Amino acid sequence: MNDKASIASLGTLSSTSRAVIRELLTSGPLPRATLARRLGLSPARLTKVTRPLLDSAVIYEDATAPNKTPGRPGTPLAVHAPRYAFAGFKITGDTLYGTRVDAEGRVQRAKSVSLESTDSSHVVDLIIDLVKELGEEQPLQAIGIGSAGTMRRYDDRVRRNQYLGWDDVPLAEILTAKTGLPTVISGDIRALTVGVQWSGPGQGHSDFAVVTIGVGIGLGMVIDDQVHAGTHGTAGMIGHTRVSEAGPLCELGHRGCASAYLNADSILAAISVPHGITDLDLDGACRLADRGDPVAQRVLSDAGRALGVLIAQVVNVLGLDTVILAGDGLVILEHLSQELNSALRDHLDPWGTVPHLETFHSDFDEWARGAAVLSCQWLLVDPPKLLAPSITHQQ
Amino acid sequence: MNDKASIASLGTLSSTSRAVIRELLTSGPLPRATLARRLGLSPARLTKVTRPLLDSAVIYEDATAPNKTPGRPGTPLAVHAPRYAFAGFKITGDTLYGTRVDAEGRVQRAKSVSLESTDSSHVVDLIIDLVKELGEEQPLQAIGIGSAGTMRRYDDRVRRNQYLGWDDVPLAEILTAKTGLPTVISGDIRALTVGVQWSGPGQGHSDFAVVTIGVGIGLGMVIDDQVHAGTHGTAGMIGHTRVSEAGPLCELGHRGCASAYLNADSILAAISVPHGITDLDLDGACRLADRGDPVAQRVLSDAGRALGVLIAQVVNVLGLDTVILAGDGLVILEHLSQELNSALRDHLDPWGTVPHLETFHSDFDEWARGAAVLSCQWLLVDPPKLLAPSITHQQ
DNA sequence: CCTTTTTATTGACATAGGAAATTATCTACG
DNA sequence: CGTAGATAATTTCCTATGTCAATAAAAAGG
C-alpha cells in the first residue's frame, strides 16, 4: 500500500522492534520462529512486529538456507546492516582515531589525525571535521566516543581523563548541538568491550571479561549481557593490583604491582636498563628472549605470572568462563603463556572453573570501532528521546 | 461490587503489579505520583494498577504524612507485609536453620534442628517438618533455601555442596511436590546478600558487595540491583586468593592465601599452637590480643591485612562504593580495623574511590532469613509459572 | 474566596500481545 | 507419486496494558 519511507533512526523504533534488531545483529540471521522463542514472544506478535520492519526495509528475508529437519523451513530475517552507519572515535593523549562502521560493526572507513593540543575545543573541532568526512557518503545514525576516564556505560561527558587533562567535559551535548547526531561517551575499555561483545570474540557469551595490556592494563566486563562500569565508572581498575610484595616499582611507587610487571614501559625499562640499551620495543624484547637473553626471558616470564594472577583474581570474583586478551601489548603473549597458565591455575579457586582464554589481536582502530558499535548498541538498548516513533503497527 | 477474595500468591500478579510491590517493599511507603515516576508509568496507569491491589488488600493507603510542600499531598501506599509469609532455610554441614518472615523481611519465627546425617532424604524430611510447623499459623507463599555450593541466582537444585556431599540434588522439585509450595535454591552467601539488599544495610544501593568471614570467606555481590552468581554459580570464590607469597598454609596447601589468614580455624590454630593451648575461640583470641599477647596481636593484624587486600581487589574490579562486612567471624573486626584500612588504602587503585565499609552483625538465622527474602524476591521478580493470573483490571 | 500547585481519577482511545485456527512448505516414507 | 507428519508463518479475534486530556481533589498562601 502506502510505501513508507525508510526509517530515519533506529532509535525511534519501538522497544520490541529494537529487541528484534539487536537479536539479529548479535546472533546473525534467524527465522521468525526462533526469534519469537528467544525473545519470549508469540509467533503472531513476531509476524506483526517484523512486517513494518520489512516494509520499510530495515530488515529483509534472507535466502532460505538448506534444511534437513522435517517441517516447513523458516525464512531467516536479517538486518540491512550497510544501510545504517555509525561513527566511532577513540581519543588518546596524542591522536584521534575515527571510523565509520555499519550496524554489524564492519569498518567502512577509518582515519586518524594527530592532536596538536589536548585543548577540548581543538579536539571537538577535529571530531566535527571527521564526522563530516565520515558522513559524506552516507548519513550517520549516531556518534560514539571512547577515551580514558571514569565514564559510565552510556555517559554524556568525559570525566577525569588523565591523559587529556579533561574533567567533566560535556562532549555529547556539544557534539549533538554541532552535528545534530545523538552522541554517547564511554570509557575506552568499555567501548572496546562492546565491540568484542557484539561483533568480536565475545559474541554469544553473556558473561566475559576483556583484559588489555599495552601502555596500561585495562579490564572490561560483560555481566548478564551488560557492560559493567561501576557506580562511578571506576570498575575494572586493576592496573595497580599488588601481585607480589617484592618486585619492581610502578610509576606510582607501588612495589610489585601489576603495572610494574606488565606495562609496556615497565617491561622495556626492565630489559634495557641492565643491558644499557635504548630504543627497545616489545618486538625487540621478544626477539631478545627468543635468542636466549636471560634478562628478557625473566622479565617476560614475570609479566606472564602477573597477568595470570590478575586474570585469576578477576575470574574468582566474577565466576567467568571466558576471558579475552587484547591490547597492543599482546605481541609478548606467546612468550609468557607458560607462566601465565601456571600462575592462573595456581591462583584460581579450586571450586571455580578454568576460564577459556582467547586472544584478540587489535590495533587502535579497533578501539574506535568499539566506540561506533557502542553507539549502535546505545540506540538499540537505551535510545535518547529525540523523535516521535517512525512506524506504527496496524492490525 | 464483587468483593474479590484476597490474593493467593504474589507470584500470580501481573509484572507491573509486582514491580509496584517490589518498589514499595524496598523503598517503603510511597504516594502514587512518586511510584509512577520511579517505575516510568503514567499516573493514570498507576491508579488503575493499584486499585485491584487495594481492593484485594494486598496494599493499603497509609496515614497521610504531614506535608510542607504546596499542592495536594499524596497518600502513601504500603504493602500489607504481614499478610504474606515466606519460609527460609540455611543448611550447614550439621544444622538446619529455618525462619518464617513477612514480605518486609521481618522474622516472625525461627527454629533450628541438628542434622543426624547429611543424607538428602533425611534433610528433606526435616525441611518438610519445619515447613509444616512454620506454616501452621499462616499459609506460606514460597520456600527459599540457602546452602554452600555453586547454585545460580534462582536455582532449582543443590550443586556441588562440599559439606553435605551433595551434587545435583533437585531439591526444589522434591519440596514443591511434597509441600505444594514454589521453592527456590541459592548459594547461602547469595541468600544472605539478598537479605542485605532488600531489608538490610544494602537497601537503597544498586551496587554493593557483602564479604563474610567465619568458617570460610564469602563474597556476594549486587550489580545493577541484581545479585550476580556467575555463569556456573562460581562467582565470589575469593577464599583462596593469594594475599602474600610467604605466610601460613591453608587446608589446600596454598601458602599465604586468604583463608590461611582469615578462616576462624586458621586464626585459632595460629594462636593456640605457639601457646600450646586448646579450646580457644575467637572471643578468647580477642581477649588475648587485648591483654597484649603478641602472637594474638600479630595473627589478628595479619588477618586485617588479608581482609583489606581482599576488599581492595573486589572494589578495584567492580568499582563499588559500599562493602558490607558480615559473618560470625566479625567479632574480631575491631581488632583488625587499623590494618584492614591501611591495607585497603594501599591496594586500592588511585583512580578508584575508597568504599564505605559497613558492618552487619548477624547470626545463622540471618542466613535463613536471607533465603526467605530470596524466595520473596524470586516471586516478585521471576515468578514460576504455576497459576492463572488472580486479578484482572477493568477499565 | 481565589489562585497556584501537586495528586489522583476518569473515560476515550491506541498499542502490544496472546490463543487458536488456518495456510504454507518442507521431509520421510510407503 | 502421494500422503502423513512436522514445523513455520499468518490471520482473526480477543484481552491486557498503556497514554492522553480533561477533571476533580486537597493542600498553601495570599
UniProtKB/TrEMBL annotation, chains A, B:
Single annotated GO MF: kinase activity
The UniProt entry, under SUPFAM superfamilies, shows:
Actin-like ATPase domain, Winged helix' DNA-binding domain
Tell me if Kinase is a UniProt keyword of this record: yes
| Pfam families in the record | ROK
- Its protein name is Sugar kinase
Entry similarity comment: Belongs to the ROK (NagC/XylR) family.
**UniProt cross-references to InterPro entries, sorted A to Z:** ATPase_NBD, ROK, ROK_cs, WH-like_DNA-bd_sf, WH_DNA-bd_sf
Question: Which keywords describe this protein according to UniProt?
Answer: Kinase, Transferase
Please name the Gene3D superfamilies in this protein's record: 3.30.420.40, Winged helix-like DNA-binding domain superfamily/Winged helix DNA-binding domain (1.10.10.10)
Lineage top rank: taxon: Bacteria
Species source reads: Nesterenkonia cremea
